[in-house]
Amino acid sequence: MFSVTNGIYVRWAMNTVLYAVVSAVGASLLATMAGYAFAKYDFPFKRVMFSTVLGAIMIPMTALAIPTYLLFANAGLTNTIWAVIVPSLVSPFGVFLMQTYASEAIPDSLLEAARVDGAGEGTIFWRVSLRMLGPGVITVLLFNLVATWNNYFLPLIMLSTSELYPLTVGLAQQQSAATAGSGAQALFSTVITGSMVAILPLIVAFLFLQRYWESGLATGAVKE
Fold first, then answer.
1. Reduced 3-state DSSP string for 115-152
2. 224 within a domain of the structure (yes/no)
3. Does residue 21 contact residue 88 with C-beta atoms inside 8 Å?
Protein backbone atom coordinates (compact mmCIF):
# COMPACT_ATOMS: atom_id res chain seq x y z
CA MET A 1 0.00 0.00 0.00
CA PHE A 2 2.74 2.47 0.94
CA SER A 3 4.79 1.59 -2.14
CA VAL A 4 2.04 1.92 -4.77
CA THR A 5 2.66 4.80 -7.22
CA ASN A 6 5.94 5.78 -5.54
CA GLY A 7 4.37 5.99 -2.08
CA ILE A 8 1.73 8.56 -3.00
CA TYR A 9 -0.47 7.22 -0.18
CA VAL A 10 1.89 8.71 2.41
CA ARG A 11 1.66 12.08 0.69
CA TRP A 12 -2.14 11.90 0.67
CA ALA A 13 -2.13 10.98 4.37
CA MET A 14 0.10 13.96 5.21
CA ASN A 15 -2.16 16.26 3.18
CA THR A 16 -5.22 14.93 5.01
CA VAL A 17 -3.62 15.52 8.41
CA LEU A 18 -2.66 19.07 7.38
CA TYR A 19 -6.13 19.92 6.05
CA ALA A 20 -7.98 18.33 8.97
CA VAL A 21 -5.85 19.68 11.83
CA VAL A 22 -5.54 23.25 10.57
CA SER A 23 -9.19 23.43 9.57
CA ALA A 24 -10.47 21.87 12.79
CA VAL A 25 -8.38 24.08 15.07
CA GLY A 26 -9.18 27.23 13.11
CA ALA A 27 -12.89 26.47 12.82
CA SER A 28 -13.12 25.63 16.53
CA LEU A 29 -11.39 28.87 17.52
CA LEU A 30 -13.58 31.01 15.27
CA ALA A 31 -16.76 29.21 16.35
CA THR A 32 -15.82 29.59 20.02
CA MET A 33 -15.17 33.31 19.74
CA ALA A 34 -18.33 33.91 17.70
CA GLY A 35 -20.52 31.75 19.95
CA TYR A 36 -19.13 33.43 23.07
CA ALA A 37 -19.84 36.86 21.60
CA PHE A 38 -23.41 35.92 20.70
CA ALA A 39 -23.99 34.48 24.18
CA LYS A 40 -22.43 37.15 26.39
CA TYR A 41 -22.48 40.46 24.52
CA ASP A 42 -25.16 42.77 23.20
CA PHE A 43 -24.44 44.54 19.93
CA PRO A 44 -26.42 45.95 16.99
CA PHE A 45 -28.12 43.42 14.69
CA LYS A 46 -27.25 40.56 17.03
CA ARG A 47 -30.51 38.70 16.43
CA VAL A 48 -30.32 39.19 12.67
CA MET A 49 -26.75 37.91 12.53
CA PHE A 50 -27.50 34.90 14.70
CA SER A 51 -30.58 34.11 12.61
CA THR A 52 -28.32 34.18 9.55
CA VAL A 53 -26.01 31.68 11.22
CA LEU A 54 -28.97 29.41 11.98
CA GLY A 55 -30.13 29.70 8.39
CA ALA A 56 -26.67 28.75 7.14
CA ILE A 57 -26.89 25.46 9.04
CA MET A 58 -29.78 24.37 6.81
CA ILE A 59 -27.80 24.95 3.58
CA PRO A 60 -26.03 21.74 2.46
CA MET A 61 -22.31 22.18 1.84
CA THR A 62 -22.61 20.61 -1.61
CA ALA A 63 -24.89 23.49 -2.66
CA LEU A 64 -22.10 25.94 -1.79
CA ALA A 65 -19.31 24.02 -3.50
CA ILE A 66 -19.71 25.52 -6.98
CA PRO A 67 -20.07 29.17 -5.78
CA THR A 68 -17.06 28.61 -3.52
CA TYR A 69 -15.08 27.25 -6.46
CA LEU A 70 -15.94 30.30 -8.58
CA LEU A 71 -14.84 32.67 -5.79
CA PHE A 72 -11.53 30.88 -5.34
CA ALA A 73 -10.99 30.63 -9.10
CA ASN A 74 -11.39 34.41 -9.42
CA ALA A 75 -8.92 34.84 -6.57
CA GLY A 76 -6.45 32.43 -8.17
CA LEU A 77 -6.46 30.09 -5.16
CA THR A 78 -7.74 26.89 -6.75
CA ASN A 79 -5.37 23.90 -6.72
CA THR A 80 -3.77 25.15 -3.49
CA ILE A 81 -4.05 23.97 0.10
CA TRP A 82 -5.98 27.15 0.95
CA ALA A 83 -8.80 26.09 -1.36
CA VAL A 84 -9.53 23.25 1.07
CA ILE A 85 -8.59 24.88 4.38
CA VAL A 86 -10.28 28.29 4.13
CA PRO A 87 -13.84 27.05 3.34
CA SER A 88 -13.50 24.50 6.14
CA LEU A 89 -12.91 27.27 8.67
CA VAL A 90 -16.58 28.26 8.48
CA SER A 91 -18.74 26.23 10.85
CA PRO A 92 -22.26 27.63 11.42
CA PHE A 93 -23.21 24.59 13.48
CA GLY A 94 -20.12 25.12 15.62
CA VAL A 95 -21.14 28.74 16.27
CA PHE A 96 -24.65 27.64 17.28
CA LEU A 97 -23.29 24.91 19.53
CA MET A 98 -20.83 27.23 21.27
CA GLN A 99 -23.46 29.95 21.70
CA THR A 100 -25.76 27.47 23.42
CA TYR A 101 -22.97 26.05 25.55
CA ALA A 102 -21.47 29.41 26.55
CA SER A 103 -24.82 30.84 27.60
CA GLU A 104 -25.20 28.05 30.17
CA ALA A 105 -21.60 27.27 31.14
CA ILE A 106 -20.40 30.79 31.97
CA PRO A 107 -22.29 32.73 34.66
CA ASP A 108 -22.69 36.44 34.00
CA SER A 109 -21.75 37.09 37.62
CA LEU A 110 -18.32 35.58 36.99
CA LEU A 111 -17.70 37.93 34.07
CA GLU A 112 -18.84 40.91 36.11
CA ALA A 113 -16.51 39.92 38.95
CA ALA A 114 -13.60 39.69 36.54
CA ARG A 115 -14.40 43.13 35.13
CA VAL A 116 -14.60 44.60 38.64
CA ASP A 117 -11.14 43.16 39.30
CA GLY A 118 -9.87 45.12 36.31
CA ALA A 119 -9.55 42.33 33.75
CA GLY A 120 -10.02 43.29 30.11
CA GLU A 121 -12.39 41.48 27.78
CA GLY A 122 -9.54 39.67 26.04
CA THR A 123 -8.09 38.49 29.34
CA ILE A 124 -11.50 37.33 30.52
CA PHE A 125 -12.03 35.29 27.36
CA TRP A 126 -8.60 33.67 27.12
CA ARG A 127 -7.89 33.09 30.81
CA VAL A 128 -11.35 32.55 32.31
CA SER A 129 -14.07 31.75 29.79
CA LEU A 130 -12.06 29.55 27.46
CA ARG A 131 -11.19 27.16 30.27
CA MET A 132 -14.85 26.76 31.14
CA LEU A 133 -15.73 26.17 27.49
CA GLY A 134 -13.32 23.24 27.19
CA PRO A 135 -15.83 20.40 26.58
CA GLY A 136 -17.73 22.48 24.02
CA VAL A 137 -14.53 23.43 22.19
CA ILE A 138 -13.44 19.78 22.06
CA THR A 139 -16.84 18.79 20.68
CA VAL A 140 -16.65 21.36 17.89
CA LEU A 141 -13.04 20.39 17.24
CA LEU A 142 -13.94 16.74 16.81
CA PHE A 143 -16.94 17.51 14.58
CA ASN A 144 -14.80 19.65 12.28
CA LEU A 145 -11.93 17.18 12.34
CA VAL A 146 -14.18 14.36 11.16
CA ALA A 147 -15.93 16.57 8.59
CA THR A 148 -12.68 17.76 7.02
CA TRP A 149 -11.06 14.34 7.19
CA ASN A 150 -13.99 12.79 5.31
CA ASN A 151 -14.54 15.71 2.95
CA TYR A 152 -14.61 14.53 -0.65
CA PHE A 153 -16.54 16.89 -2.89
CA LEU A 154 -14.73 20.14 -1.99
CA PRO A 155 -11.16 18.90 -2.62
CA LEU A 156 -12.41 17.02 -5.69
CA ILE A 157 -13.49 20.22 -7.43
CA MET A 158 -10.77 22.45 -5.97
CA LEU A 159 -7.67 20.34 -6.59
CA SER A 160 -6.29 19.06 -9.87
CA THR A 161 -2.80 17.94 -8.80
CA SER A 162 -2.60 14.47 -7.32
CA GLU A 163 0.17 15.55 -4.91
CA LEU A 164 -2.38 17.82 -3.16
CA TYR A 165 -5.14 15.23 -2.86
CA PRO A 166 -6.40 14.11 0.56
CA LEU A 167 -7.01 10.42 1.18
CA THR A 168 -10.67 10.57 0.19
CA VAL A 169 -9.99 11.89 -3.32
CA GLY A 170 -6.77 9.95 -3.82
CA LEU A 171 -8.31 6.61 -2.92
CA ALA A 172 -11.32 7.34 -5.11
CA GLN A 173 -9.03 8.04 -8.04
CA GLN A 174 -7.18 4.80 -7.40
CA GLN A 175 -10.51 2.98 -7.29
CA SER A 176 -11.41 4.42 -10.68
CA ALA A 177 -8.07 3.27 -12.05
CA ALA A 178 -8.62 -0.18 -10.57
CA THR A 179 -12.00 -0.46 -12.27
CA ALA A 180 -10.83 0.75 -15.67
CA GLY A 181 -7.26 -0.58 -15.90
CA SER A 182 -5.38 -3.83 -15.72
CA GLY A 183 -4.41 -5.43 -12.42
CA ALA A 184 -7.72 -4.27 -11.01
CA GLN A 185 -7.96 -6.89 -8.28
CA ALA A 186 -4.56 -6.06 -6.73
CA LEU A 187 -5.20 -2.31 -6.79
CA PHE A 188 -8.72 -2.77 -5.44
CA SER A 189 -7.27 -4.59 -2.42
CA THR A 190 -4.86 -1.71 -1.91
CA VAL A 191 -7.73 0.79 -1.94
CA ILE A 192 -9.69 -1.23 0.62
CA THR A 193 -6.65 -1.50 2.90
CA GLY A 194 -5.91 2.20 2.51
CA SER A 195 -9.48 3.09 3.42
CA MET A 196 -9.28 0.99 6.57
CA VAL A 197 -5.96 2.58 7.61
CA ALA A 198 -7.42 6.06 6.93
CA ILE A 199 -10.01 5.73 9.70
CA LEU A 200 -7.50 4.72 12.38
CA PRO A 201 -6.35 8.30 13.14
CA LEU A 202 -9.96 9.33 13.74
CA ILE A 203 -10.39 6.51 16.25
CA VAL A 204 -7.19 7.56 18.02
CA ALA A 205 -8.32 11.20 18.08
CA PHE A 206 -11.70 10.26 19.55
CA LEU A 207 -10.13 8.09 22.26
CA PHE A 208 -7.67 10.86 23.12
CA LEU A 209 -10.21 13.68 23.24
CA GLN A 210 -12.96 11.86 25.14
CA ARG A 211 -11.11 12.35 28.42
CA TYR A 212 -11.76 16.08 28.11
CA TRP A 213 -15.47 15.35 27.90
CA GLU A 214 -15.25 13.25 31.03
CA SER A 215 -13.34 15.99 32.89
CA GLY A 216 -15.90 18.56 31.70
CA LEU A 217 -18.79 16.48 33.01
CA ALA A 218 -17.08 16.18 36.36
CA THR A 219 -16.47 19.92 36.61
CA GLY A 220 -18.99 21.49 38.96
CA ALA A 221 -20.34 18.15 40.13
CA VAL A 222 -19.01 18.87 43.61
CA LYS A 223 -19.73 22.23 45.21
CA GLU A 224 -17.39 23.71 47.72
1. HHCCCCHHHHHHHHHHHHCHHHHHHHHHHHHHHHHCCC
2. no
3. no
Contact of 130 with 32, CB cutoff 8 Å = yes
d(CA 148, CA 144): 6
Determine, yes or no, domain membership for 211: yes
Number of domains composing the chain:
1
Q: Which domain holds residue 169?
A: 8-218
Per-residue pLDDT of the chain (224 residues; tens, 9 = 90+): 555 556 788 888 899 999 999 999 999 999 999 999 999 999 999 999 999 998 988 888 778 888 999 999 999 999 999 999 999 999 999 999 999 999 988 998 989 999 998 889 899 999 889 988 988 899 899 999 999 998 888 999 999 888 999 988 888 877 766 565 554 455 556 667 777 777 888 888 888 877 776 555 444 433 44
CB 87 within 8 A of CB 70: no
Q: Measured between alpha carbons, how far is 65 from 69 in angstroms, rounded to an integer?
A: 6
Residue 215 CB coordination number (10 Å):
12
Q: Give the burial class of 61: count Cβ atoms within 10 A of its Cβ; 0-12 exposed, 13-18 middle, 19 or more buried.
A: middle
Q: Is 88 helix (H, G, I), strand (E, B) or coil?
A: helix
Q: Specify the length of the chain in residues.
A: 224
